[in-house]
């Protein structure tokens, strides 16, 4: 027990030291470097020289966004993690096809469980509040993204099997924190002590409450934590996309939207959502192609199979902000301010559509005047 406490104390000190060093390096580099997001000249929308807070990024907007020298202001740890993952994948290339063949099959089996799932208004409100809160706790603990996706899946599966959707908010809070507790055991290497989970509930639930409810959840889901994590599908697709960090980061934000907004996307396979997220991210950078390689690496999803999901994602981006913690998370420079960039891009597209409609209406009105004359 003393060893675990010492290790946690050491990790806290190391984390705070790294944060201080990162802040100092950002201050030092921000005055010497400029990071641009460049647009195509034909689609200029007269919105230039908008400077983001705490960075030297000059942002311009168009229907086709492209990056130039954007990596200098990013936390390198995220990039290094992904690099290591890609190296790990190349070490087991002989098993890659079999692994993803199993994951695609598991993905469709999971979706089949929720085909008849419908949400009431109260369930939607409770789930939006719950997921927004669990994102905050996930950020506080500094867990991996895989842990968040597994947590959301455990919540959905437990509620579906136990028919607990009508639970009170206090019970939902216990369900959420315990699901995170289980998912962290499954995905993480270094874990916080159980008392920290209890503290995040403001003392509403004790350590024993969490441990006892853990048993209930695991018995209800029959100890089955098999899950086709959508990040696995997205990372495989980034191999075809030349492992481009800006496009992958925005795709991660769009993919997380499909997991958070479960009422809209729960009936779609995770691989299909990952393909739609990368496809839409590439569109933001002026890359419209989706050739046979992308189809093969996405699990067989063609452009016609993912356009509808892209429209649903755009609809989410245009809707009022409900998951404020998700928005705040991806406003940081660590995630390339992905939520801001996506919002601005969608608004720019909407503005262009309105201009086209107004010109079209004027044309028809003038034509009617000529006919009447």
TrEMBL record:
Keyword Cell cycle: yes
Stretches of the chain forming a coiled coil according to its record: none
Pfam families in alphabetical order: Cyclin_C (PF02984), Cyclin_N (PF00134)
This protein's record includes keyword Cell cycle: yes
SMART domains linked to this entry: CYCLIN, Cyclin_C
This protein's name: Cyclin N-terminal domain-containing protein
Ranges for domain Cyclin-like: 132-219, 232-315
Family named by the database record: Belongs to the cyclin family.
Gene Ontology biological process terms, A to Z: cell division; mitotic cell cycle phase transition
Record GO terms (molecular function): cyclin-dependent protein serine/threonine kinase regulator activity
Keywords assigned by UniProt, alphabetized: Cell cycle, Cell division, Cyclin
Superkingdom, natural source: Eukaryota
Residue ranges annotated for the Cyclin C-terminal domain, each copy included: 228-344
